[in-house]
Amino acid sequence: MATKLKGKTALVTGAAQGIGAAIARAFVAEGAFVYVTDLNDELGHAVAAELGDRARYLHLDVRDESQWQRVTGQILGERGRLDVLVNNAGITGFEQGVVAQDPEHARLEDWQAVHRTNLDGVFLGCKHGIRAMRPAGAGSIINISSRSGLVGIPGAAAYASSKAAVRNHSKTVALYCAEQGLAIRCNSIHPAAILTPMWEPMLGDGPDRAARMAALVRDTPLRRFGRSEEVAAVALLLASDEAAYMTGSELNLDGGLLAGSAVTPAVIE
Ligand SMILES: NC(=O)c1ccc[n+]([C@@H]2O[C@H](COP(=O)([O-])OP(=O)(O)OC[C@H]3O[C@@H](n4cnc5c(N)ncnc54)[C@H](O)[C@@H]3O)[C@@H](O)[C@H]2O)c1
């Protein structure tokens, strides 16, 4: 049996589907006990049930500080420790349909709603994660940012802004923990175009689906979507003691997209 996370207790937010569920599966496969948390209780329970007695589902809306207090308190009560926290829950702002998210037309409430989940949720997670890890003096916090946190996105301003802030906050948390003499590491992962339910509203299920998918990855050097399992593999590395010297770092997982740019010439001119 794989044992990279043997004896560790992990909490994954937004783990009812997509990348979060894949991370929960990878962690359990490596011997961790995983708290699968989400807003979507039905899907969250199903993921935990599939993982058996090495997982448990708890409702956690990452925007609500009292829920963070309840969940981390319960984990310390039941397991006596929290070793790994993955702040994965995130929204694009397009979940309820197409709304303006560009810098000129976005409504303040839509801008704030995206930041409440993507940024406030990560702030609260780091805050209560550090507190829960402090008794052991060690741990790994993994924040799922995005390629959109590294470049501007005209049609998704709040998403890009919130993910950029997550990238920076991860470094602040890393330095703070080091300064406190704690072996609590904090790193960010920056995926791009990972095929999850997040993309469904944009892809549709009609005859144009394949063409839309091809168009979305046209500028990706590897010319395909990434898989949730490929993000989970990197989260697993950051969660494990093998990455004990990694903190404040950012890992891109984007099929090579950020290695160049859309205007990179094919030949030297
Ligand atoms: N899929 C991609 O291409 C991609 C690329 C870059 C970054 N990301 C990031 O990866 C993370 C996971 O994305 P995904 O593609 O699996 O998305 P997804 O939409 O498939 O899953 C997101 C999960 O988060 C949950 N969630 C939403 N708001 C929440 C809240 N307030 N509290 C708790 N849970 C909440 C949802 O219920 C859902 O289960 C997100 O932070 C996303 O921004 C995804």
From TrEMBL:
<comment type="similarity">
    <text>Belongs to the short-chain dehydrogenases/reductases (SDR) family.</text>
</comment>
<dbReference type="GO" id="GO:0016491">
    <property type="term" value="F:oxidoreductase activity"/>
</dbReference>
<protein>
    <submittedName>
        <fullName>NAD(P)-dependent dehydrogenase (Short-subunit alcohol dehydrogenase family)</fullName>
    </submittedName>
</protein>
<dbReference type="InterPro" id="IPR002347">
    <property type="entry name" value="SDR_fam"/>
</dbReference>
<dbReference type="Pfam" id="PF13561">
    <property type="entry name" value="adh_short_C2"/>
</dbReference>
<keyword id="KW-0560">Oxidoreductase</keyword>
<dbReference type="InterPro" id="IPR036291">
    <property type="entry name" value="NAD(P)-bd_dom_sf"/>
</dbReference>
